[in-house]
Write a structure and sequence with these properties.
Elements: H1 23-37, E1 45-48, H2 55-68, E2 72-77, H3 84-102, H4 106-122, H5 148-165, E3 170-175, H6 182-198, E4 202-208, H7 212-219, H8 223-226, E5 228-231, H9 238-250, H10 257-267, H11 271-284, H12 292-317, H13 320-331, E6 337-338, H14 339-346, H15 354-362, E7 366-367, E8 373-376, H16 381-387
Parallel strand pairs: 1-4, 1-5, 2-3, 3-4
Antiparallel strand pairs: 6-8, 7-8
The structure holds adenosine-5'-triphosphate and magnesium ion (MG).
Length: about 400
């Protein structure tokens, strides 16, 4: 089939041609912004899930939904090396630019700019995206305490009041929340609490790895009641097929039941794997309907691509000792494994290998679903590790 018209979209945050199996999460967001706009109580949504499961594309979908409802939006991705306060200053700058374009009451917008300037100055931040070129003096006494929770809360309340007056709303979407850092996160959660009490149409929603719920609760103990935490898993049942058949069908191409069944087996419902396999199958098939022989012909190349672009770069980020730890995990099975068992496989005491475990946690390659357990953040990582020839991680057990 012509690669030029290949509809599939393997990537990071690349919107899929057909967003399969996430109707409930889209509906939840529709209800969330509807309630916020009506001044009803809300629990902002937070998505949690493994790598490549489709969290970012859902956040982007939510963003479009909010914009379609006339809301202003900003999207940031927390990173261990960035200061979230700085990123929030950029996000607020984005919101204000949209507000100055859309809002009728420009006096209100001017006041917001002054408050935002206070926030930015108190945060010691400089706006790096688009530049804060408001050329206004800060508003004394609002959002200028230097404490993130207070300042962000005050700023968001002002934003919410302005949005409310215009019959609109504002949402900041924060991706990779687990990387925000506990102190900043605590400020954000506290600010969310504040705006929630005011019942204003201003929201912070987010997404992160499976640990995000615990990280939020560690930041503020009431976080689990404040947010509506939803886990995003592999696509189930018919949704896996629809992710493949809908884009093909739109181009007049069909797949046989046996081809679909093989693709289900290969991808295990994981959206990134679905897109990758489907892309290679499309390129190698000659005619519609695509059959299982086309899947068989394409799958070695899809697997190779996954190894090179998805698994190997993560494996390469680990030190030799961390790799040994991962191999020991993989030898114990595909799901959660006990860190004591991992240590036993390596032939050490758990305390002797905690450095490796912590290193992998910090690199985001594994997470601790519960105390004493570890699991990979990347689906199918254990199978990848087991497929490596042993010499790749060395026989050295020092
Ligand atoms: N519901 C879906 N239906 C079809 N394809 C999807 C769906 N969700 C995501 N995808 C595809 O899966 C891939 C991964 O999506 P995305 O980058 O949003 O995952 P993620 O959970 O944010 O991953 P990471 O944790 O690595 O950031 C993309 O290629 C995207 O097009
Ligand atoms: Mg993502």
């Amino acid at each position: 089939m012509d690669p030029v018209s290949n509809p599939y979209s393997p990537g990071a945050g690349t919107p899929p041609p057909y967003l399969a199996g996430r109707d409930d999460l889209q509906e939840a967001f529709r209800i969330l912004i509807g309630r916020a706009a009506a001044g009803n109580s809300v629990q902002p949504l937070v998505l949690s899930g493994l790598r490549g499961v489709g969290k970012t594309v859902l956040l982007l979908r939510w963003r479009s939904m909010a914009e379609e409802s006339g809301w202003v939006t900003a999207h940031i991705e927390a990173r261990p090396e960035s200061d979230l306060r700085q990123q929030l200053a950029d996000a607020v700058n984005d919101l204000l630019r949209q507000m100055s374009r859309k809002y009728r009451n420009q006096d209100r917008v001017d006041r917001l700019k002054r408050v935002a300037t206070s926030f930015v100055r108190a945060a010691g931040a400089t706006v790096s995206r688009g530049g804060l070129t408001f050329n206004v003096e800060p508003e004394p006494g609002v959002a200028d305490s230097g404490e993130l929770e207070t300042d962000l809360g005050e700023l968001l309340v002002e934003l919410g009041r302005a949005a409310n007056e215009e019959g609109s709303g504002a949402v900041i979407l924060i991706d990779e929340l687990q990387d925000a850092g506990p102190e900043r996160l605590s400020g954000v959660v506290g600010a969310c609490h504040r705006i929630n009490q005011e019942r204003l149409p201003v929201l912070i929603v987010g997404a992160g790895l499976p640990t995000v719920g615990r990280i939020l609760s560690d930041a503020k103990s009431y976080a689990e009641r404040l947010f509506d935490l939803r886990s995003v898993g592999p696509l189930e049942g018919h949704a896996q097929d629809l992710a493949i058949t809908e884009p093909a069908g739109a181009l007049g191409v069909e797949l046989s039941e046996s081809a679909l069944s093989e693709l289900r087996e290969l991808a295990g419902g994981y959206p990134f794997f679905i897109q990758t396999h489907a892309k290679f199958v499309w390129d190698s098939a000659v005619d519609s309907p695509i059959g299982d022989e086309d899947v068989d012909a394409a799958s070695p190349r899809a697997d190779e691509q996954l190894r090179r672009s998805f698994f190997a770069p993560r494996y390469d980020r680990a030190t030799p000792a961390e790799r040994r730890y991962m191999h020991a995990m993989a030898s114990l099975g595909d799901g959660h494994v006990s860190s004591a068992d991992v240590a036993a496989v390596i032939g050490r005491r758990p305390s002797d290998v905690s450095v490796q475990r912590d290193g992998l946690l910090n690199k985001g390659l594994v997470y601790a679903p519960e105390r004493g357990l570890v699991a990979f953040t990347v689906p199918h990582m254990a199978a990848f590790l087991r497929s490596l020839p042993t010499h790749e991680f060395g026989a050295d057990r020092s």
